[in-house]
Amino acid sequence: MADATQQTEPLLTPTIDTDGAPFWQYAAQGELRIQACANPGCKELRFPPRPCCPHCQSFDSEWRKMTGRGRIWSYVRPHPPLLPAYAEQAPYNAIIVELADAPRIRLVGNLVTAPDAPLNSVDPERLRIGAKVQIAFTDIDGIAMPRWLLERP
């Protein structure tokens, strides 16, 4: 039996490192930006952020604004056992989104009915590979977390 004084486990939040910090700073402003090589002969997008371009090995980078539109590339509905902080929200989804303006870039998140809606706010029967989605951000423990909304609910 659990101790009544035991604290509830917090939700998982990202570890923000030097390479990824700009991603989270832009997210706090409601913008989706992806790191790109700043070498004029390359310009390749890369995610997750890293110090060196895997295509040309340049250390020069910039952050390009994206539309925030994409499509569900894959999804999963986690089944028990779940992390205690997420058990109350089951059944929920975790989706991989392929960005419309950068098809080789895929981001992970949750499909919800509104930015601040619970993770289980979308009926699991509505999940479809290829469904069009739009990014939205919500504050979780001081971090603007990306979430996804169906373009046509």
Essential attributes:
disordered N terminus, OB fold (Dihydrolipoamide Acetyltransferase, E2P), five-stranded antiparallel beta sheet, 2 helices, mainly beta
Polypeptide structure, described:
This protein has 153 residues and is mainly beta. It has 2 domains: 17-65, no CATH class; 67-153, Beta Barrel (OB fold (Dihydrolipoamide Acetyltransferase, E2P)), CATH 2.40.50. The protein is built from 2 helices and 8 strands; from the N terminus they run αββββαββββ. The strands form 2 sheets. Strands 6-5-4-7-8 form a 5-stranded antiparallel β-sheet. It has a 3-stranded antiparallel β-sheet with strand order 2-1-3, covered by helices on one side. Strand 1 and strand 2 form a beta hairpin. It is globular, with a radius of gyration of 17 Å. The termini are far apart. Residues 1-7 have low confidence and may be disordered.
